[in-house]
Design a protein that fits this description.
Shape: globular
Radius of gyration: 19 Å
CATH topology: Rossmann fold
Structural class: alpha/beta
Organism: Streptomyces cinerochromogenes
Low-confidence stretches: none
Number of strands: 10
Number of domains: 1
Protein name: SDR family oxidoreductase
Number of helices: 9
CATH superfamily: NAD(P)-binding Rossmann-like Domain
Largest sheet: 6 strands, parallel
Helix content: 25-40%
Strand content: 15-25%
Pfam family, one: NAD_binding_10
Order of helices and strands: EHEHEHEHEHEEHEEHEHH
């Protein structure tokens, strides 16, 4: 039995990773800012982090926030992991962090490099956006009478449970460095995803494609955040919508 620490273990992805590893009989410690017994803010570290890592062989680092702080959190986690003699640190990143000059992506890329240079055994998996994230974004956009989406931007959403399954497999294997990306089964236009969401939720909104500007938008429009050659995910966006909202749910 392996002792594994999952950071961000109460989040959308981390919770599923922890459940999968526990189902396989491993001791899993869930680290989050507010959940005892391992309630630790990685941005500040502290004694609680050392206690959480004591005796841990593998860390699955899922904790992340677009609001900032990821780099400091990684510094604290990596330093504590070295002190604890952790054998393997597995980090989940995003497809396109090296191609799309979006601030959050740049942060994820910086953390990747910190992991690679940490001196620990490491694995990095990049995945495309989760179905859940796409729906959260569309829910916000649909509050307006017109659902405006960025013109010409594709997307390739993936089922979060499939990413969790892959992370659990990697956590139980030897450090593998950068492993092949995990992307959803279809590259779709964002307006087609918006229309699918409206159908599933029974809402009526005009979908308007709005051109944007800047380097990040050009990179998104060019599909820098997609991986058509790694379309290995199984669940489609419509299948996710049906599970979540049912037929014509509101």
């Amino acid at each position: 039995m392996t002792t594994i620490l999952v950071t961000g273990g109460t989040g959308t992805l981390g919770r599923l990773v922890a459940e999968r590893l526990r189902a396989d009989g491993h001791e899993v410690r869930v680290l989050s800012r507010r959940t005892p017994p391992y309630a630790v803010d990685l941005r500040t570290g502290g004694a609680g982090l050392d206690a959480a890592l004591a005796g841990v062989e593998t860390v699955v680092h899922c904790a992340s926030s677009p609001k900032g702080g990821d780099e400091q959190a990684a510094r604290n986690l990596l330093a504590a992991a070295r002190r604890a003699g952790v054998d393997h640190l597995l980090y989940i990143s995003i497809v396109g962090v090296d191609r799309v000059p979006f601030p959050y992506y740049r942060t994820k890329l910086a953390v990747e490099r910190m992991v690679e240079e940490s001196g620990l055994g490491w694995t990095v998996l990049r995945a495309t956006q989760f179905h859940d994230l796409v729906v959260t974004l569309l829910q916000g956009l649909a509050k307006s009478p017109v659902l405006a989406v960025p013109a010409g931007v594709p997307d390739q959403p993936v089922e979060v449970a499939e990413v969790a399954e892959r992370l659990a497999e990697l956590a139980l294997a030897a450090p593998a460095g950068r492993v092949p990306d995990l992307a959803g089964p279809e590259v779709r236009t964002f307006d087609s995803l918006a229309r699918a969401y409206l159908r599933a939720t029974g809402r009526r909104r005009p979908v308007v494609r709005v051109p944007l500007f800047g380097k990040a938008y050009r990179a998104f429009r060019a599909g820098g955040h997609t991986a058509p050659e790694r379309a290995v995910g199984k669940a489609t966006f419509e299948e996710y919508l049906e599970r979540r909202f049912g037929q014509g749910a509101r």
